Amino acid sequence: MKTTDLFSRLSKRLSSLEKLPKLDDKKSIPSVLEEKGINRREFMKWAGAMTAMLALPANFTPLVAKAAELSDRLPIIWLHMAECTGCSESLLRTDAPTIDSLIFDYISLEYHETLMAAAGWQAEHNLESAIERYKGQYILMVEGGIPSGENSFYLTIGGHGKTGEQNAKEASEHAAAIFAIGTCSSFGGVQAAMPNPTGAVALSKVTNKTVINVPGCPPSEKNIVGTLLHFILYGTLPALDAYNRPKWAYGLRIHDLCERRGRFDAGEFVEEFGDEGAKKGYCLYKVGCKGPYTFNNCSKNKFNSHMSWPIQAGHGCIGCSEPDFWDTMGPFEEPVADRLYDTVFGGLGADATADKIGVGLLTVTGIGIAAHAAISKFKNPKEDEE
């Protein structure tokens, strides 16, 4: 699609949303941002960064800004399954609220067990009412793995005796879009790790509708809000990779974006934590970094108010945005080396060890080339929609 045609299409989409009434009596998002001391210049700078993240041209920045301002027009239902609430906390716990977290605070969140005041039968009534009232219109966000089948009773919710699996199925049936927030909801997470006593599964396993996975333990707040903005802008699903992750966020490996990549290319590795290489910021592959096998944009977004991320802090990536990472990526302080690495194309050798890598040899023995090349060539049929 031509850029001009896409701009026109997104503009029409936002114009139709603008005609919808706000779903509650909260202040508008622009007024809230102003009240919190965020001026228009800062907001547009943020919108420009989100535009780049969504792989849109710079002149689309006003559209992204408008989408953020209209995010209170669409109802959202957020369900908690078997999880630690870390994904919600990544949005809520901050010393200085970011634009991302403020937008999340003021969207029309019709149901969220951690945030709402209601409890017991009132909470159950709120969920049922929201599903019925906004049938076919709401966005469903689910956090946590889902105990399923004969083990579904491990997650029984409220006085009506429904299981988490039943709630997830019912909410998924009438959702306009479904987002699995975090690795537990996307792939089962630690709940689904061997021996998986509760039979926990990913959200996609309990519904036949398409689920957009936003994995991470926890995912970046920008990946959560960015996925929401994409749906507001397009009204359709984004281009997805082999594991239904948005390509704009999960299209490249940690290894591709790593600030220590130059050390890797030069064959400079940390041999053990605390050694001279660690102090000099050498590559962490030998002490277990799973960056060559992990697709995410952590180095761009960072954590702790966007100040740092695990590799910058001195610990290797543990592969938390990959399926079954608890079982396939451990031990976390040891390299994958020549163990088999399971991809959508079957088991592939995890290629050469770091000991064989030196200057000029990367094209032959680079870590992750086999897995990366295979996954990169996987063509999702949805990628041509945009």
Describe this protein's structure.
This protein has 386 residues and is α/β, with parallel strands linked by helices. The chain folds into 2 domains: 3-250, Rossmann fold; 254-381, Cytochrome-c3 Hydrogenase, Chain A, domain 2 (Irregular), CATH 4.10.480. It contains 19 helices and 11 strands. The chain has helices spanning 3-18, 29-35, 40-53, 61-69, 86-92, 99-106, 120-133, 164-173, 183-187, 221-234, 247-250, 254-257, 261-265, 276-279, 298-301, 310-313, 325-328, 362-365, 369-376, and strands at residues 75-80, 108-112, 139-143, 146-147, 156-157, 162-163, 177-181, 200-201, 212-214, 340-343, 346-349. The strands form 4 sheets. A 5-stranded parallel beta sheet has the order 2-1-3-7-9, with helices on both faces. Strands 4-8 form a two-stranded antiparallel ribbon. Helix 3 crosses helix 4 (61-69). The longest helix has 16 residues, at 3-18. The termini are close together. Residues 342-386 have low confidence and may be disordered.
Task: List the SSEs and their pairings.
Layout: H1 3-18, H2 29-35, H3 40-53, H4 61-69, E1 75-80, H5 86-92, H6 99-106, E2 108-112, H7 120-133, E3 139-143, E4 146-147, E5 156-157, E6 162-163, H8 164-173, E7 177-181, H9 183-187, E8 200-201, E9 212-214, H10 221-234, H11 247-250, H12 254-257, H13 261-265, H14 276-279, H15 298-301, H16 310-313, H17 325-328, E10 340-343, E11 346-349, H18 362-365, H19 369-376
Parallel strand pairs: 1-2, 1-3, 3-7, 7-9
Antiparallel strand pairs: 4-8, 5-6, 10-11
Helix pairs in contact: 3-4
Domain NADH:ubiquinone oxidoreductase-like 20kDa subunit: 84-230
Binding site for [3Fe-4S] cluster: 298, 317, 320
Binding site for [4Fe-4S] cluster 1: 84, 87, 184, 217
